[in-house]
Amino acid sequence: MKTPPSGRARFVVRHRLFFAAAAVLVLLRIPSLFEPHWYLDEGMYATIGAHIRDGHVLYRDIYDHKPQLIFYLYALLSLTGNTLVAAKVLNILAGIVTLGGIYALSRRRFLFGRRATAVALVAATILLGTPVLEGNIANAENFFLPLTVWGLYLGLTRSSRGLLLAGLLFGIAFHIKLHPLFDLGALAVYLLITADSNKERIRQTGLLALGFVAPAVAFILFELSRGTFDLYIAAAYLDAYAYSGESAESYIQQTLTKIVVLLTGLTAAVTVWRKTHNRTVTFILILLMFEVFAAVLSGRVFYHYLLQLVPGVSLGAAWVYRNLFRDRSPADKVTAAAVAAGLMFVFAAYFNSSYALPYQNPNRRLPDSWFAAEYYNNFARHLPSGFADDSYLLFFSDRPLKLRSIRNVLPEDTSSVYIYSDLGWAYDYVDQHSPTRIFVAFQLYYRNDDRDRLATMDELYQDPPQYLMIDETRDTFDQLDTFLAENYRQSGRENEFVLYTYTARATARAR
């Protein structure tokens, strides 16, 4: 007699679509484990995480314009001794959890069949697993997606426990990056539209809000206890528009236009609900409206912003498949075709924007928007010989070679150094702390006034570092040039990086 399969084996067989997708995701992400220190966001998270690990206070001693959790996550990862590899491994695990949420939504919440669920998983696996949307990068989007996807799953139960847990997950995700607020908004609007009574509307949205607020209260109390509440609010929330490079007036005007478009789309979703009472299409339309709004809110084009669309696009792809290729009415097929065309338009517009197209790495044959097409070929070509060759590193960027130059020119006995460059990895790479709160050059140009520059110069005047390193490809500013001329002499150079040694006591003030 054959031994009957164990409960675990039956579970794997029953959910084989998910496990197959997870296996493919892991295979697609393996090359990411061998990427060099090249991506700016990863470097900034790692540098800030190392500072937090060593006792520096976030927002007071070291700065970036995001909520806390992504930095504390990298602080934990830095304890492994190899922050980059640890972040990539955790990114793979986060992708698997996200796939699990999309699978659960497809099968248990929307009752898609196996083929439609397979379409959802194929779409999610490609978007999360490949560099098409920078899924290979251990960025904030990849880490909040598991929380938002499972938040949607729990919220759709409409049970008190599910709604509270959903709100809690969204609240935690919000403190990784602000954008999960819009997935929460999509869920809340859907619940409001489809609830059976006003009492249910109040109960459901109230429980969501209660769960969402809980982490916020905890973080506010934490920042108040450290005396950094005002810095936290300014950095995590108020400085966001400055990163767009737009004036406040222009940013507000563009945002209002996007809000009008969002409201128009939501009106269409409400109309669909009133005419069809189709919960699936209503939810997917609302979710996509909010996710597209969140992705384009900043006005800038970075492909990882589109990762937030993975839940809506995956579920939308499953729904489109079910309506286009199954026995559905002509009206359903037209609606499905319209949704598919809309999604294709969003992606085509994003990938062919005037902002993105000019960027092309000279060591690649194709523009950056086609990075994924060469990514796996580059990995396969260098697999036999290893991944330390300059040709492998330069495929990604010249930043790994710049980091090497910094390490080569910096003396081993360095006690302190200020590195004026756009390399987010610089301080972590050479195991140094930034002597200034703002540690990358481009952030000194966020504002239209000199506040950040003057504050940075005050820090340098108060405690001049032993060395100062300048990236000559980056424009400096008058106050830094004066400080350098009065207190430092050139003592080394490698490529575009010039090293200066402190020679005088800086008693003047930046102002």
Automatic annotation (TrEMBL):
Q: What does the UniProt entry say about where the protein is found?
A: Cell membrane
Protein topology in the membrane = Multi-pass membrane protein
Read off the Pfam families from this record.
PMT_2
Q: Tell me one GO biological process term.
A: lipopolysaccharide biosynthetic process
Q: Which UniProt keywords apply?
A: Cell membrane, Glycosyltransferase, Membrane, Transferase, Transmembrane, Transmembrane helix
Tell me yes or no: is Transmembrane among this UniProt entry's keywords: yes
GO cellular component terms, alphabetically, are: plasma membrane
Q: Which domain of life is it from?
A: Bacteria
Segments passing through the bilayer: 71-104, 116-133, 163-193, 205-222, 251-273, 280-297, 334-351
- Drop me one GO molecular function for this one: pentosyltransferase activity
Query: Which part of the chain is the Glycosyltransferase RgtA/B/C/D-like domain?
Result: 66-217
Q: What is this protein called?
A: Glycosyltransferase RgtA/B/C/D-like domain-containing protein
What lineage is this protein's organism placed in?
Answer: Bacteria, Candidatus Dojkabacteria
